[in-house]
Specification:
With 154 residues, the chain is mainly alpha-helical. It is built from 8 helices and no strands. Helix 6 packs across helix 7. The longest helix has 27 residues. The protein is elongated and about 80 Å long.
């Protein structure tokens, strides 16, 4: 005769399952269901995929609804304003990574010397010269100002 798996006693209904585990927690140490059963191979993954249902007290639910009602008209107004005016064009960098390398080598500087002079890290200088600063975007304005100042371009 096969023994029944104790885990099969756990109800699927969230309310009943919560009650089941609350009762299980009342038992003494070593007698909890989680103490006496062997965990299955994927039990931790199942736990991570579990759902937790939370029922808010009526006072909190009411406050959240009030906040939501107040914020909805503001969102609509914000959307209308943002769609009526075009976004200002961002100023793009005029200094390229290739130019930074040319200026640096013309001065006979190492990347370390340029980094120290500009007040930025050596790794950032290398990234800028390779053109991968900010994910391939133009050199950031803050770095461009520092580099132009060092090269005497401002």
């Amino acid at each position: 005769m096969q023994e029944e798996n104790p885990l099969s006693q756990i109800p699927n209904d969230p309310e009943a399952a919560a009650s089941f585990w609350a009762k299980d927690a009342l038992f003494g140490k070593g007698t909890h269901l989680s103490d006496i059963t062997k965990r299955s191979r994927n039990s931790f993954e199942q736990l991570l995929n579990a759902r937790l249902l939370v029922h808010l007290p009526p006072e909190i639910a009411e406050k959240l609804e009030q906040i939501e009602r107040r914020s909805q008209p503001l969102r609509k107004k914000a959307l209308k304003k943002s769609t009526t005016k075009p976004a200002p064009a961002k100023k793009t960098s005029t200094l390229t990574g290739k130019q930074v390398r040319e200026f640096r080598t013309a001065k006979g500087w190492s990347t370390r010397k340029l980094a120290a002079s500009a007040g930025i890290s050596q790794s950032m200088v290398v990234l800028i010269e390779k053109g991968v600063d900010r994910g391939g975007q133009p050199i950031s304005p803050a770095f461009e100002v520092k580099l132009k100042k060092v090269f005497g371009l401002t």
